[in-house]
Amino acid sequence: MRIALVSSEVVGFAKTGGLADVAGALPPALENLGEEVIVFLPMYHCIRKTGNFESTKVRFQIPLGPKLVPGSLAKSKIPGSNVTVYLVENPDLFERDNPAFGRGFYQFAGSEGTKKDYPDNSARFYFFNQAVLASFPQLGFWPDVVHWNDWQSGLGPVLLREKYDKSEDRSLAEKYQKVRSLMTIHNIAYQGNFWKEDMNMAHLNWSLFNLNQLEFHDTLSFLKAGIVFADRISTVSPTYAREIQTPYYGYGLQGVLTVLASKLTGIVNGIDYKVWDPANDPLIAGKFDAGNIQPGKALCKKKLQHELGLEVNPTIPIVGLVARLVQQKGIDLVIESAWRMMDLGIQFVVLGEGDSYYQNALVQLQATYPGRVALNFAFSESMAHKIEAGSDCFLMPSLYEPSGLNQLYSMRYGTLPIVRATGGLADTVTDANAGSLANNSATGFSFNAYSSAALYDCLYRAIDCYRNHPLDWAQIQRNAMTQDWSWNRSAKNYQQLYNTIISSQA
After folding, report:
1. Is the separation of the CB atoms in 85 and 41 below 8 Å?
2. Which end of the chain is more exposed for a tag (fewer CB within 10 A), N or C?
C-alpha cells in the first residue's frame, strides 16, 4: 500500500504532545511491514534552523481568500528510518515559532502572559491541507490512503472530495477519486472551530455549512469536517472510541460520532522499545528485564532516592508521577488525597509542570513531609526514565486519557501503574483482583469513580500488595513487563484498517 500520513507535528522535528510521537513512530513501523509511507508536516522555524532538510522542485499556489499564496516542499527523513518527510514551506504562515518570545506552533503568549491561538490558524492549516493534496501529481505519489490526524488536517478529506475529485482535468480527477481518507482523533477536546466566514477564505461551497457536515454551533469545525468526510475514523483506544460517543467525553461531537459509529475504530498507540527498555536504557543506573528484575531495579530505586534527597531505604515504596499538572491528568484528585497518601508511608516523586495552583499545593506537601516528597517542575527526559525505572508504582488517575503512554512505559519497567479506568488506561492495564491474580493477567491497579476516595483506595490496595504479598507483586511485575505494546503491534492494526478502507471502496 501507499500511505500518506499528514500531521502538524512529528517527533524529531516538532512536538507538543502525543500526536508527534504517533506521527514519528507509526510510519517507520509501517515501512518495516512492507508498506510505502510518506509524511507531510509544516516547515516550522525550529526545523528550518536545524538545516536537516533539502529542497525539492515541488511548487504550488494555493487560493487563500482573494489571493493566490505560493508554497513549496522541502524533504527530510524520520530519524533512523527511510521514511521521507515532506515539509510544507511558507515562512509567513508557519515559521513564527520562537519559545524565547512565547511563540509556539499554534499559540503565542499575550501581553498578560496567557496563551492565545494565532488568529489565522484556520488559514494556516487550510493552506497545509491544500498543499498536501496539490503535491501528489508533482511527486508522482498517489496514495491508496491519506491518514489525516487531528483538527489541523480536518479539512483534508473535505477538499479531496469537494475540490480535487472534481478537477477540470479528468485524468487528475480520476486519480484523486481513488484516494481514500482515514481521520484519526487524538484528543476530541481540540476541534479547530473557527468563524464561519472562513468558508469564504477556504473557497468552500456554503451548501456544506449545515448541521450534518461542516457547521458546529454556528462555527466552521475542522475536526467535524474530517470526521464527516473521511471514509473511516479512528481514535487512539477502543474504550476512548466508545467514550467519545457520550456527552461526558464527546465535547459536543458525540451525536455525529454515534451516527457514524460503524466507521469508528479504536487502536491503542504503541511505544518504542528501543527507547523504553530497562535492559538497554543508558539513562538508568541498573539494567533488568522480566526474567531478572533484581538487583537491577533495586539499584535504580536506590540511585533515584539518593539523587532526589529521599531516605535511601529499599522497603519504602516510591510512587512516581510524570505528567502535565492539569486537571485532565487527575492532579486535583492527587492534591485532595495527598495527605492521606503520605500517611501510607510512601515516598512521592513528581515530574512535570502546569497550573500554578497544583504546583503550589505540591510545594506545601513537600514542606509538610521533608525528605519524602521530591518535585521537578521542569521536564527532563532523563529524569522521566529514572522515575519509571526507580519507582515501585506509577500514578495516572486521569479524568480522561485517549490513549496514554506513561502507563505503557511503567509496565515495561516493572513499575506497576495505578490508573483510573478510562480511555487507553482501561484498555492497557488489567486490575489486580482475585480473578486476574488467579489467571496471571494482572498488570497493575485501577479504579473507576473520579474521586479522591477511589484513588486512595486503589493506592492502598497497591501498597498493601507491595508490603504484604511480595509473590503476587513480583508476578504482576512479570506480567506487566512481558506485555507487547510495541509500535509493531499498533502498525499491524493500522495496516489491517487501511486494507479494510481500500477493499470496501474497491
Report:
1. yes
2. C
Which residues 6+ apart lie within 8 Å of 70 measured at CB? Answer: 59, 60, 61, 62, 90
Residue 301 belongs to a domain: yes
Please state the rounded mean pLDDT for residues 211-215.
96
> β-pairing, 107-109 with 115-117?
antiparallel
H or E element in which residue 194 lies: strand 193-195
CA 496, chain centre distance (Å) = 21
Inside any domain, residue 368 = yes
| 209/215 Cα distance (integer angstroms) | 5
Structure confidence by residue, pLDDT tens digits, 302-350? 999 999 999 999 999 999 999 989 899 999 999 999 999 999 999 999 9
CATH number at residue 143: 3.40.50.2000
Which three cell numbers, joined as nine digits, stand for 430? 488489567
Q: Helix or strand or coil: residue 1?
A: coil
For 311, half-sphere exposure in the C-beta direction (CA atoms, 13 angstrom radius) is 13
Q: Where are the beta strands (DSSP E) in 275-334?
A: 318-322
The CA distance from 25 to 27, in Å, is 6
Q: How many structural domains is the chain composed of?
A: 2
Tell me, yes or no, whether 468 and 495 share the same domain: no
Reduced to 3 states (helix: H, G, I; strand: E, B; else coil), residue 42 is strand
Tell me the C-alpha to C-alpha distance, in Å, between residue 431 and each of 151, 286, 406, 452.
34, 28, 16, 18
Averaged pLDDT, 461-468? 98
Q: Say if residue 506's pLDDT is above 60.
A: no
pLDDT in tens, 368-402: 999 999 999 988 889 999 999 999 999 999 999 99
> Is residue 168 classed exposed, middle or buried when 0-12, 13-18 and 19+ CB atoms within 10 A define those classes?
exposed
pLDDT at 505: 66
224 with 324, same domain: the answer is: no
Q: Tally Cβ neighbours within 10 Å of residue 11.
A: 18
- Do residues 157 and 250 share a domain? yes
76 φψ region: left (φ > 0), alpha (ψ -120 to 50), beta (else):
beta
For the chain, give the longest Cα–Cα distance: 74
Edge-to-edge strand ranges of the sheet holding 347-351:
373-376, 347-351, 318-322, 393-396, 416-420, 445-447
Q: Which residue's C-alpha cell is 516550522? A: 44
210 and 262 inside one domain? yes
* Structural domain boundaries, residue 187: 2-270+488-504
Sign of the CA dihedral with 127 first, then 167, 37, and 493 last = positive
Rounded mean pLDDT, 342-363: 94
Q: What is the mean pLDDT of the chain?
A: 96
d(CA 104, CA 81) in angstroms, rounded, equals 27
The pLDDT, as a whole number, for residue 115 is: 84
Pairing of strands 54-64, 2-6: unpaired
Specify if 11 maps to a domain: yes
